[in-house]
Design a protein that fits this description.
two-stranded antiparallel sheet, binds iron/sulfur cluster, 5 strands, 27% helix, elongated, alpha+beta, three-stranded antiparallel sheet, 5 helices, 148 residues
Amino acid sequence: MRYPMLREVLSSLVRRPATVVGPAKVRMPEGFRGSPYLAVPSACTSCGLCARDCPSVCITLEAVADEVSGRQASVGSDAGATPRIRKLPVFHLDECAFCGQCQDSCARKAIRMHGTWDEAAWTREAMVRKPSAGALAKQVEVARKSDR
Ligand code: SF4
Ligand code: SF4
């Protein structure tokens, strides 16, 4: 064959695409775990079990104010007090194996896996799932959509 490339180009014009358009048309198989996120920040006791059990060592505990974590500091004798600083898990998804162990390890059911699969990013920093107020709201919203 003199022009093997030309033949390949012409045949690809009539072939069906080997890839699919995402994300709307992608259906994940049953049992797909997805990726971890802190679903119920107010339930987290900062015990660190999720970080201890993570086989990829990709969870760190990060200090956040109570107003971000969702726990009420200003009740009872604490009323009017300055919000305390608590530590909540931060997921470094660039090293995550998506195994779900953190969800299983959390006795408080604060961690959940949600079915998003398009986690690609240009930087490692963009793969860090932090418990900031905006990020938490976004995570919960994404999770709700993926659960539908
Ligand atoms: S998410 Fe669960 S396991 Fe992790 S620190 Fe909070 S309570 Fe502990
Ligand atoms: S899903 Fe697995 S690898 Fe990822 S943060 Fe949780 S325990 Fe670690």
